[in-house]
Request: fold
Amino acid sequence: MDFAFDARTEELRGQLTEFMDSHIYPSEPIFEEQLEKRENPWEQPPIIDDLKQEARSRGLWNLFLPGEHGGGLTNLQYAPLAELTGRSPELAPAALNCAAPDTGNMEVLTMFGTPAQKEQWLQPLLEGEIRSAFCMTEPDVASSDASNISTRIERDGNEYVINGRKWWSSGAMSPRCKIFIVMGKTDPSSHRHRQQSMILVPRDAPGVNIKRGMHVFGYTDGSHGGHAEIEFTDVRVPVQNIISGEGDGFAIAQARLGPGRIHHAMRLIGMSERALEAMCRRVTSRVAFGKSIAEQGVVQEWIADSRIKIEQLRLLVLKTAWLMDTVGNKGAHTEIQAIKVAAPSVATWIIDRAIQAHGGGGVSQDFPVAALYAHARTLHLADGPDEVHKRSLAHRELRKYETR
Amino acid sequence: MDFAFDARTEELRGQLTEFMDSHIYPSEPIFEEQLEKRENPWEQPPIIDDLKQEARSRGLWNLFLPGEHGGGLTNLQYAPLAELTGRSPELAPAALNCAAPDTGNMEVLTMFGTPAQKEQWLQPLLEGEIRSAFCMTEPDVASSDASNISTRIERDGNEYVINGRKWWSSGAMSPRCKIFIVMGKTDPSSHRHRQQSMILVPRDAPGVNIKRGMHVFGYTDGSHGGHAEIEFTDVRVPVQNIISGEGDGFAIAQARLGPGRIHHAMRLIGMSERALEAMCRRVTSRVAFGKSIAEQGVVQEWIADSRIKIEQLRLLVLKTAWLMDTVGNKGAHTEIQAIKVAAPSVATWIIDRAIQAHGGGGVSQDFPVAALYAHARTLHLADGPDEVHKRSLAHRELRKYETR
Amino acid sequence: MDFAFDARTEELRGQLTEFMDSHIYPSEPIFEEQLEKRENPWEQPPIIDDLKQEARSRGLWNLFLPGEHGGGLTNLQYAPLAELTGRSPELAPAALNCAAPDTGNMEVLTMFGTPAQKEQWLQPLLEGEIRSAFCMTEPDVASSDASNISTRIERDGNEYVINGRKWWSSGAMSPRCKIFIVMGKTDPSSHRHRQQSMILVPRDAPGVNIKRGMHVFGYTDGSHGGHAEIEFTDVRVPVQNIISGEGDGFAIAQARLGPGRIHHAMRLIGMSERALEAMCRRVTSRVAFGKSIAEQGVVQEWIADSRIKIEQLRLLVLKTAWLMDTVGNKGAHTEIQAIKVAAPSVATWIIDRAIQAHGGGGVSQDFPVAALYAHARTLHLADGPDEVHKRSLAHRELRKYETR
Amino acid sequence: MDFAFDARTEELRGQLTEFMDSHIYPSEPIFEEQLEKRENPWEQPPIIDDLKQEARSRGLWNLFLPGEHGGGLTNLQYAPLAELTGRSPELAPAALNCAAPDTGNMEVLTMFGTPAQKEQWLQPLLEGEIRSAFCMTEPDVASSDASNISTRIERDGNEYVINGRKWWSSGAMSPRCKIFIVMGKTDPSSHRHRQQSMILVPRDAPGVNIKRGMHVFGYTDGSHGGHAEIEFTDVRVPVQNIISGEGDGFAIAQARLGPGRIHHAMRLIGMSERALEAMCRRVTSRVAFGKSIAEQGVVQEWIADSRIKIEQLRLLVLKTAWLMDTVGNKGAHTEIQAIKVAAPSVATWIIDRAIQAHGGGGVSQDFPVAALYAHARTLHLADGPDEVHKRSLAHRELRKYETR
Reply:
């Protein structure tokens, strides 16, 4: 057992920290300014492109992706880098071409794509030239139960015809977004886990109607292409657009989830660290009733509890990454579910306390904490509400005792 | 001891419930549509004016105000009506001319205004013709400690000259807002509680610079005039604009707070009831893993805990109103602080669970719960963060034992 | 709506407070000494008899019982008195002949007993000459579901024959305990709510085997007759011992529960107040790191939160009592369940914080808080675990929306 | 970074697990029986001696102690073994001669003892022939602030004279306990951290008055020598009995704490695992309202949350052990404080839920959970209340930002 990062990780952490300090944090106010000024509410501020170029020139590019096309890192090596990017969640992941949902989509194409699919869509994604969306969740059903998903993908000759309604398709409002991976039913009569397929749908295909952007509290997340509601009406794509094969949708979704949860969890830790830092800075700079707010016992409890929570959570996420690297996603199932639940819980707790420590400014646009909260809060729901994962985890725990 | 509402209260509750059912709830989607379409982001949708007219014609007008100019109700009689308006916080309080901060400002003018001040400002407020703002909190200091407030109000001949910076001046972004009550220091050398004064400043006075609207978790609250940051630079008003007298600011602020806390607390209960209702409706209409979400034990716990919390909180707020009516605000000091802390705590807990029960929709614009959360969350901070009130409450509790 | 106690209540509260101050609190150390010295671990210390005599002479006797045989008080009038007795839960309820389970048993006999049953058992209970036990919970089944209860009560000629095993029969270890009310199945084939009956079984009946006393976190509660495990083997009693009639057991249990929950809840409030007082006294008398513990912000939060929780809870319990008086137990069903859950929750939270504020002494015999904790903790389980009541309460809440 | 135990650890875990299964768990009911029957309430049941002999014969002896006299293990290697012993906290640590406070005392003597002190006291402790106590906490002061400790150790010629009062001297009630390490002031005028010294005091020295055993809730912990209150009145010991030197008390106390906290924390994890196992077994074996309690959603949440909490906590404790091994106790200061706070918090939460899942049995002597709770609850207080450690941890966190 060894709790030190390996040399490659330390080297990259150093480089990334340097990049954050020299480029990311100083770009945050510029980003905010450009946000205010842009005309299309779904376009990203130009500073992001500058940061992408800089990051790429430093070799901080596609680090999330194992193998030759990416950083060639293990999950355990990438995890601490994902944490660092979480400290500036609107800029850093995009700058490194490591932003969801592109990361998951690139993983899917790397693992399951045909050579033609890779050339057409994976390559420009890896280059950061286009963005993509993942169309899974539906407004009409509890989508945490994948068998509820009702979008139809029906074969008609050499084409598939897609009909259905999706929402929370993150990034899809952006004009840069060119391709969707859509989950839907090819065979409703098949076994529960073989009904679903995934298929590539160009954003500009006839019958694709991008209806509106969903809000997260009052945010549109416009700079990252928002979260779209999309209607698919008799959308036709060639049969070659199917990913892997008919009925493989559920298995692809499972494969996509593992690394995604590590990324989300580590970014949430970075967000928690950022919030804790903001809290500490704020309370040391304000005075009420004759003493610094930092001297208030209650605030000190928040700070201590924050640190204690973060240290525990980070180790669990790193162990999960290590398990995925050593015994595979299936062997890490319990831990993957545990961090899905634990990470948003820690993050929202800490960020909420940071908001409180900021006074009125905490809920406003003047400090990062309110937006961090909204972002973290959604992760209690994204990929299925916490409760679904807890129930599944409990079933596995209980099973240990049933056979005895 | 008697827990039944009196006849007058029951009558008004019936009338208000009828009005909510027939006019307020059906207007909510119209309000949302008009919001989308309006040009000035700080103007209120026209449906509000229709609702005001209807409410007034039904005698549901200025009910918050005791005495002949208002509904003539006690705090205890008005409280359950405030709860009902909290069920639709963007429409109902405004429709009844019972929205903050106008309510508090009208109370101040009723209690402390000169006949001329009343004629010029109270009358149009009572008529619902204009709106007003209350400029207290400052960005540069922890304003929960009123002695920190640093805006200067200096006499110069027959005028007062005002210099300072305020934020969270709710309503001030609206073109309908015509008058500010500004808190500031007239005599920094005086006793801690005699340094501050309140003064009337027309919104269009030279030197008043309305800089921007503060956001609340991405929301601008634009339909109610937002929350402004305002700079006062050598703003001059006649000496007659002082309220009550120099040095009375702290006392007026105290007098303003009592009823305001009852109103906020009761509206938070209404918001909690609305969220609980939304949660119940949502979970009975969705199925996951083969059964209704309403059949999940965890969701049932949330519902039961919500009901248990609401019932306790409501009684404490009503008792506080009764104490204010019978022994005065000072005698109700402990209870006023208790509800300041307890009400947002109950409301944010319930609304957060309601969000979770909604799945992804919960954080979006499609259900009221996300906006309710943002609104309720601010009340952990407005009028001073919870922690300040708890500390003061604890001091009073501890004092019981110090002398023994 | 009126939050003031009526004159009779205020008078009795004054008398009881005076009795607590002059007799109960000063007797607590004597009680502890006598506990140490007594030979039979299940006998009560003699000071209790002295206190009973004194209380009775002051008219503070059987106040729990409505009607001519008791104090003639409403639930709402008795509730605040029950709270006061909870401040010294080992002495005060017994001194006033208002201790569980005798109170519930006397209520049952008053409501459902035959004249003969009343003469033989109710009379000496009312006189405080004997004590009684209530044998409901069984070790072998989840007894919160009354239909699980499996003790058999079978008619054989002019006798009933009882076979089964009970535990948590409080008071039954005491030599003063003379009579049991036993719940069991007379007709397993009947409707779910008509299978059970209640029957009177003298403690010295042949076949009654009092096996042992159950512990509560190491405490035996010996001074009040402990909590017995009892085996009934072919125990025979005359048919006249049935209470009300065959099949009435469930209904009697329901009738017994309502007032019992008010009593428990109000005593828990008294226990909470005692713990809060102990916490305040302790923290004002200790110094660490250069300042009084009372000056620590965290401790102040505990104190404020305690006060805020108590005030809300008390009002809900009083309202529940008022509902029982005005619309009956059935109309107060939701509230009765709410206080069943809320009261132990508030009490264990406050007492736990009081323990923490005491340092090491908090868990010891030197301060009342550890024993208060153990007592309060059991009430999350007694009369069914909280979760059962929450589920039932949630079902009622959800039902409001099902029909719409 | 590597999350696998090394080979030596795995080997010992296997051996210890085998010993737990074959000897410890089967001895638990025997232990309970012998407890009931023994005459001296402060003597340990004879089964412990049998287990010690067996454990020693298997090489499972003094594993806590680094170096040649003990198991020669690192903190990281011993930690998972301490966890296993925590699963049966009354038997396993004692059986392995790894029970507090002997462990800490043996560490102190190993590190700071003179050859004579080692021969006289360390040797028989290592042999498991005698037991020892650590007399630090005092009833009259908040002992978390070591500078409050007021016991005097005054030199008088070739002797030290000790006067003072201690409590919570665990183990000191036992007739097997032969030696105390006493903390007291040798020089009140010295620097805050140089006033205190530690000295060896035989339990049978004249002037040592062992007054009574402190209770923990209702438990006496008699089988392990209880927790004594001790009066020292003019107790004289030779000057050779001082440990290390005058003024070294504070430094020795610090050195003693580090490993002790690892041990406590890991045992708490073992206790948590035991409670979780008990909860799972109980809920799968009981039925209420027509389904197994294990199928209740709320219980599943408890189980999932328990597992999620344990996994995080364990990693933090292991990392702390690793830090102590690699950078020393000082470098692990933050983590040592974090686990001091986190471990009891996780344990009491889980055990409390396990109690609830057991129904009435949960608070009784029939299941291990009530005793586990009492034990775990004390660790929120032992070695200083959580709040003291949180404050110190927060200060260190805040210091990061003060200099920037």
Chain C has a mean pLDDT of 96. The domain at 250-402 of chain C is CATH 1.20.140.10 (Butyryl-CoA Dehydrogenase, subunit A; domain 3).
